[in-house]
Amino acid sequence: MIMNDYEILFQKYVKELKEAIEEEKEFLDPNLDKERYEYELSISGRVIAVFRKYWFECDKLNDNEENEYYVNPKDFCVDWLSGEHEELFRIIEKMPYYPIGIDEHGNYV
């Protein structure tokens, strides 16, 4: 993983994502099977808001001309969680779609 502004941003993302998931767990039925439980977390408003926030923040870093790196926002928000943050990865990978669109100019919305 690249140790720079992206890594700092990623650490913030992980922290906020964990907090959002913990908050959402209070509202879920603990008797749900693991797959359904993780799916319900993946579509919760708080988790989606954090996901979108950091997708856009990663994209903003990519637009910074002083930045020598480019990191795909999908890789940043999903793939970088794999391994060390496997529990978070399993939740995010269950999103039925990424809550990000692209406008007519190719910008994320």
List keywords for this structure.
109 residues; mainly alpha; 5 helices; 0% strand; globular
Task: Give an account of the 3D structure.
It is a single chain. Helices cover 56% and strands 0% of the residues. It is mainly α and 109 residues long. Helix 1 packs antiparallel against helix 3 (45-63). The model has no long low-confidence stretch (mean pLDDT 93).
Poorly predicted ranges: none
What is the succession of H and E elements?
A: HHHHH
The gross shape turns out to be globular
Structural class: mainly alpha
* Helix segment tally: 5
Average pLDDT, all residues: 93
N- and C-termini, Cα separation: 26 Å
The biggest sheet amounts to: none
Task: Give a concise summary.
The protein is mainly alpha-helical and 109 residues long. It has helices at residues 5-25, 34-42, 45-63, 73-77, 86-92.
How are the SSEs placed, and which strands pair?
Layout: H1 5-25, H2 34-42, H3 45-63, H4 73-77, H5 86-92
Helix pairs in contact: 1-3
